[in-house]
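Protein 1 of 2
SEQ + STRUCT:
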Amino acid sequence: MQFFDLKRPAKLGLSIPEQKHRWLREFLKAFMVVFMVYFCMYLVRNNLSAAQPLLVKQGLTTTQLGWIGYGFSLAYGIGKTLLGYVVDGKNTKRFMSFLLVLAAVMTLLVGVLLLMNQTPVGLILVLWSLNGLFQSPGGSASLSTISRWTTTTTRGRYIGIWNISHELGGAVAGIIALWGANRLFGGNVGGMFIFPAAIGLIVGFWGLFFGADDPQELGWDTSEVIFDEPVPAADQEAAKMSKWDILKTFVIRSPWVWLLCIANVFVYVVRIGIVNWAPLYTVQQLHFTVAQGANTLLLFQLGGIIGSVVWGLVSDWLKGRRAVVSILCLVLTAGVVLGYRYGTTPTMINMSLFFLGMLIYGPQLLIGVSVISFVPKNALNVSDGLTGTFAYIFGDLMAQVGFAAIADPKAHGLRVMGQLLHGWNDTFIVFYAAVVLSVITLAVVAVGEERRIRGAAVAK
């Protein structure tokens, strides 16, 4: 475990102007690692979805694939908090690179089994769940490394750019997996797991040794000193505390962390409710072709890429008021979703989904950035992981199981607060309820952010 400790060598005595001059080059090394590692995590995650048609031909049932996917989600959700606690205070860039290696090994083993025409469902379920567990702290670890290199008023733009990594990885995962299987494994489905795993192993080992996790690892000052910003009070206080005391004080007892966890559940319901069901909704309700339904995801993800960068930058311009920007995005979402609900042509639907992706990825990104401002850097992984755990356990349940019960014409619907919801039109009731509840929750968080920002201005 010493390999993952944060190194604190003696300071080199470089002047602040010299450190500031060298900062960008060294930061880009660390940024490149967390970007590429997280990109590769999606290569060994979304390849399962792309491989499903071939897996069914090889003997797996749809139900079995559903359980395998749920095993990943459950392990991923739980691991975000548990492994997040382990990773906190460590060299997160190095730790997430190591976890990518482990995730790639699990994916490689699944591929080898399939290449041998073996489909032991129980073993594949275990391996894929372990894959989810090892990937779970990846996003939080990336935020941790970026936050060590940046300051409160600048990190939004860099995290927004980093957020492209999983959008891009998710978009090309199926293409890369299928290309590798066809070119190197004669079209065998096992190649859709082995080829992405090989890429993950290479990138994971590279990330272990390239770049530094923070400026202090190079013998520099902290990012706050380099850019003449006050060190957050939480960081100063946490420097004198044990890891467990930090968890109790700044995470478990923090109302802001719990409020952001709740807000993330509602935002997740909106985001996953769209991205999971848009193809089926457009085919069943609007009678689009299967190809037209599949294309809806491309526009949604493209909007998400642009939105992540734009809203991260806007929140920096507003001096770190992430909750305010998130509320703006959600209010606009409530209007744009009308185009998605009442649109009847592929052009109308795709335009609506593009702007929905651009808007909903604002709060999806900024909730993670906001939680950083309320906790010390040594508690970032577990606090951000906790928001992810809430989203995956509760938000995923409503977005996938709940929406399925409401939309399924063969089911009896879902009764919520005494009202029976049934049919695609009623799913929008849940959309609007989630938007309203997330706005209310984030409004309270905005008050806390405002107090923190004004307090920091006084301290400066």
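Protein 2 of 2
SEQ + STRUCT:
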Amino acid sequence: MKLVKKFTQGAAFVALTAMSSATLANDAMNLDELLKTLEQGKVAQSQENQQREKEFLARQSEQMQMLRSAEQSRNSKLQESERLETNFEENEVKLAQLSDTLQNRMGTLKELFGVLQQVAGDSSNKFATSVVSAQLQGRDVFMDDLAQKMGSTSKLASIEDIEKVWFELQREMTEQGKVSRFNTEVIVEGGAKQNKEVMRVGAFNLIADGKYLEYNNVTNTLSELNRQPVARYTSSAAELQQAKDGFVQFALDPTGGSILGLLVQAPDTEERVHQGGTVGYVILAVGALALIIALERFISLMLIGGKIRRQLKDNVARDDNPLGRVMKVKDQYPDVAYDTLELKLSEAILREMPKITRNLTLIKIISVVAPLLGLLGTVTGMINTFQAITLFGTGDPKLMAGGISQALVTTVLGLVVAIPTVFLYTLLNTRSKNLLLILQEQSAGLIAERSEKGA
């Protein structure tokens, strides 16, 4: 307090000195007037300081009052905290006693409700993935709510809840043995929704319009499979949906769709052929060429053979068949010796041979080249596989599937073309040799006849 007062007086003195200096600078004053002015300033300053001291003392008492009020509030809160802590401890004791009482009163019911909670949780998962839920929706929601309610609170299940759990389990077992029909929206190819009659085969498959359906338990929607199985399976589905009574053969998936999902992922014949790549297309083109040539040769030899058989029954030689043209040689050279006639007949047979054996050599070449092309595709596919391994490693088998597929498919295509081509070549070659044998046989008879005449 004294320091504040002295500081205030010093400041006033400095201020008055400054004012006096300024006054002396402006007005000429004597020493008596200056002294009087200083005394007046000192009195005024003293009065101002006293006023400030009174205000400070008044505020000090106010702050003391606030301090006492805060202390009283703190003491009250401490008392309240002690009271609440005591109540908390008492409640814990009561809760433990009540829990023991609940456990004693529940007895064997505790095990029952535990089993009920487990059954409700398991049934919720089962109902969510069951195809029966496509027809009977909302069952998994009830089971899930019941399991969560019994697991998170001490509230017991009611008789109605227990009976509903039993009812839903029994209904699931009953529906698994039924083939039922119902109408619902189905997502078809392209994403559009159409209302269709759906047939549910137990808890295994769903079909509509002869197509297999897929049930999405997340969105509770039915949709057609992006890829349907082969025709013999879809035809059985169509027959089942059209049947009114009796027994019908049906391709059923006992796994509820797992086997069907793998089955539709398997490539069909056309996709396997495309897996062969460029080499596979070349093999097929070569095989088609061999088939066309073999078909042309088979028809041609069949016609030639028919004409030769007709010529055998006729003594008049005709120019429309190889045998007739060979027989005409005898008429063209009626006076030559039999050895000369033999040479002429051999020459005629040699002229007919290219027409009978035409393109057979090409079929034989194709039967040999086709497996070599398959081997070429195998090597190419393995090169692609090793390149994929070099770039990406062996972590993902799908990266190697393309090369391996090409390697295996081209080998199969090569064998598929070569094996029937060998049979065709053998058949056509045998038929052509039989025709040539007939020509040689008849030629030998003509020579023998000329030899007898010469003798």
